């Protein structure tokens, strides 16, 4: 449906929010057959050109639109421009999620009839609709009184404020309330809450519900970053925009207030979540987390989310945590209580299967301290630099690309492997490729870029090939390649040199891990991950551990989940796993083992 609506609005040249609102509302009211006399929020939008309204109604019907209020909420959220959506993080929240949060929070309030209930990033008002319906059903208050006395909304965008009022007005009209409603919907940047001139009407709430904006740190403006740094919980890493909303909500609530969010779950483990974990722990906040792990609550957006509930004024020495990987919102959650004192705010909270996870992480020394870990080289244009030669002839690798044959000097190339391919049962030699490597080691052992004159003279074929792709190479990093030492340099200098011994494994996997241990100082890596060391025995021990069922079970519980049953094996997901402190005889015994079951039994004794 959305694509048809988008094309229609574009064809009509409808970009002005008022005209879009007018068309949507006129079509909705006409199809409902309502007469509106007193509700100025609606009457001010009626009167759109009739032929266009009729045409639009026909389009909506053909697209399956049944003129329910929830569909209109979804439609309003959809017509936010993509650029604004990136900046503000606005996204439609499914109604079953909203109702779950609203019901959970409002059931905890005794005198709900007098409660001040807010959504401080309200978008087009979906949460406030559910709050209003809940209050109307349980208190029998009319919507006019609810809007005036109970409901508060804040949003940074004028069109979101307007649309929230429209949606709330239409809700009331559906219950035969045709009045000139008084709304408490405030156009403001919620990050300004800490400023002296904040409107004090919009604080001191009994309940806060909502969906904080989803904007990653790289898309946050400098002005917004400065505002975020006013808040304690934004002092670690590069915080995403949703993070300060936790602290703002806590401070906006009354002493016994309640909050409920659908939000990202990344704060549990991420570097930019350290300050927020510390904030929760020091205050001993009473929080409940329902972690959806890999389940995609938002069908149109790939996000990893959780339900987050907090009750202010009640200190707890533990976090309550539940996993709901099926996304079943109808079930009654069973929570595990994890003591704050047992959590590591610096390393991250591994809450899933906590007792077993804690035992695995407390055994011996953490993998991150046991061995170095490397991600691959970053050419930022692998399709140019990396290739599989067709054959070797007279000291040249011969390759074909798009019907053109090139010869590249062997001497300028290095072997490189994509260890992500180890997730498939392939022979390691079959995934080794070549990379054009325009670097040399100087007398001090430091890798340096080959200067252009030398490159052109010593390796004319490779130089000519890259020169033919110069325009494409200069588009890397959004065109900011002027910071590179030269136009043919890799995009990053990471992993240009590696220790002699490397334990390659995939960065993502949907089954127990397969590793390959290689003794080759010159072999490079791209796209995957490797543990590296100058001590081969360490990697032989680590190979047995990483390929075990114990390790895979740990990853399934605590690695970042992705679609199709895949889990991340990035540093943050594996670095805290413990490696037992074996003596030399124990290491020899483990390294010599070949039988899988024997290895598992051996390791289980040490992890207890």
Features:
26 strands; four-stranded antiparallel beta sheet; 608 residues; alpha+beta
Notes on the structure:
The protein is 36% helix and 19% strand. The two termini are 55 Å apart. The protein is an alpha+beta fold and 608 residues long. Mean pLDDT is 92; it is low at 85-89.
Q: What percent strand?
A: 15-25%
Number of strands: 26
Structural class by helix and strand composition: alpha+beta
Q: What summary fits the major beta sheet?
A: 9 strands, mixed
Q: Give, in spatial order, the strands making up the sheet with the most strands.
A: 3-2-1-4-5-7-6-8-9
Number of helices: 24
Share of helix, binned: 25-40%
N- and C-termini, Cα separation: 55 Å
Q: State Rg.
A: 29 Å
Shape: globular
Query: What number is the mean pLDDT?
Result: 92
- As residue ranges, the low-confidence spans are 85-89
């Amino acid at each position: 449906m959305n694509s048809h609506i988008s094309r229609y609005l574009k064809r009509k040249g409808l970009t002005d929010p008022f005209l879009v609102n007018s068309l949507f509302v006129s079509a909705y009211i006409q199809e409902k057959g309502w007469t509106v006399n007193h509700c100025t929020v609606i009457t001010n939008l009626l009167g759109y050109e009739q032929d266009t309204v009729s045409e639009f109604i026909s389009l909506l019907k053909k697209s399956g639109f049944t003129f329910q209020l929830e569909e209109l909420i979804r439609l309003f959220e959809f017509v936010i421009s993509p650029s604004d959506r990136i900046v503000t993080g606005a996204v439609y929240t499914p109604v079953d999620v909203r109702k779950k949060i609203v019901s959970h929070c409002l059931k905890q309030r005794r005198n709900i009839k007098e409660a001040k209930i807010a959504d401080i990033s309200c978008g087009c008002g979906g949460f406030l609709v559910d709050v209003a319906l809940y209050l109307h059903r349980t208190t029998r208050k009319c919507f006019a009184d609810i809007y005036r006395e109970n409901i508060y909304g804040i949003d940074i965008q004028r069109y979101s404020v307007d649309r929230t009022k429209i949606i709330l007005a239409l809700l009331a009209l559906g219950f035969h309330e045709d009045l000139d409603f008084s709304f408490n919907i405030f156009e403001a940047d919620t990050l300004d809450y800490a400023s002296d001139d904040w409107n004090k009407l919009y604080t001191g709430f009994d309940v806060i519900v909502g969906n904080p904006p989803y904007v990653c740190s790289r898309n946050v403006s400098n002005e917004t970053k400065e505002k975020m740094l006013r808040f304690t919980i934004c002092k670690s890493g590069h915080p995403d925009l949703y993070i300060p909303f936790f602290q703002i909500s806590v401070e906006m609530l009354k002493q016994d207030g309640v909050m409920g969010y659908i939000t990202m779950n990344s704060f549990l483990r991420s570097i930019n979540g350290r300050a927020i974990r510390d904030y929760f722990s020091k205050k001993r906040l009473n929080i409940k987390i329902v972690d959806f792990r890999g389940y995609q609550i938002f069908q149109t957006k790939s996000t990893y989310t959780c339900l987050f509930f907090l009750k202010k004024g009640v200190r707890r020495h533990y976090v309550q945590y539940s996993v709901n990987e099926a996304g079943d919102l109808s079930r009654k959650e069973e929570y595990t209580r994890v003591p704050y004192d047992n959590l590591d705010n610096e390393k991250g909270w591994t809450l899933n299967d906590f007792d077993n996870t804690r035992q695995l992480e407390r055994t011996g020394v953490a993998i991150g301290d046991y061995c170095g870990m490397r991600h691959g080289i970053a050419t930022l244009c692998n399709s140019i630099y990396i290739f599989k030669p067709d054959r070797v002839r007279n000291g040249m690798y011969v390759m074909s690309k798009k019907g053109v044959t090139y010869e590249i000097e062997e001497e300028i190339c290095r072997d490189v492997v994509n260890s992500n391919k180890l997730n498939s049962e392939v022979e390691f030699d079959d995934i080794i490729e070549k990379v054009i490597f325009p670097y040399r080691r100087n007398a001090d052992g430091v890798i340096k870029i080959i200067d252009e004159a030398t490159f052109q003279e010593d390796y004319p074929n490779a130089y000519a090939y890259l020169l033919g792709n110069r325009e494409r190479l200069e588009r890397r990093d959004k065109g900011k390649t002027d910071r590179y030492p030269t136009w043919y340099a890799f995009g990053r200098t990471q992993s240009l040199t590696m220790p002699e011994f490397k334990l390659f494994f995939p960065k993502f996997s949907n089954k127990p891990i397969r590793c390959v241990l290689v003794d080759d100082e010159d072999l490079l890596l791209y796209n995957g991950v490797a543990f590296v060391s100058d001590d081969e025995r360490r990697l032989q021990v680590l190979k047995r551990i990483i390929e075990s069922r114990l390790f895979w079970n740990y990853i399934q519980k605590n690695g970042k989940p992705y679609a199709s049953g895949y889990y991340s094996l990035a540093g943050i997901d594996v670095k805290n796993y413990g490696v037992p402190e074996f003596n030399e005889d124990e290491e020899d015994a483990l390294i010599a083992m070949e039988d899988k079951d024997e290895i598992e039994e051996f390791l289980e004794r040490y992890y207890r």
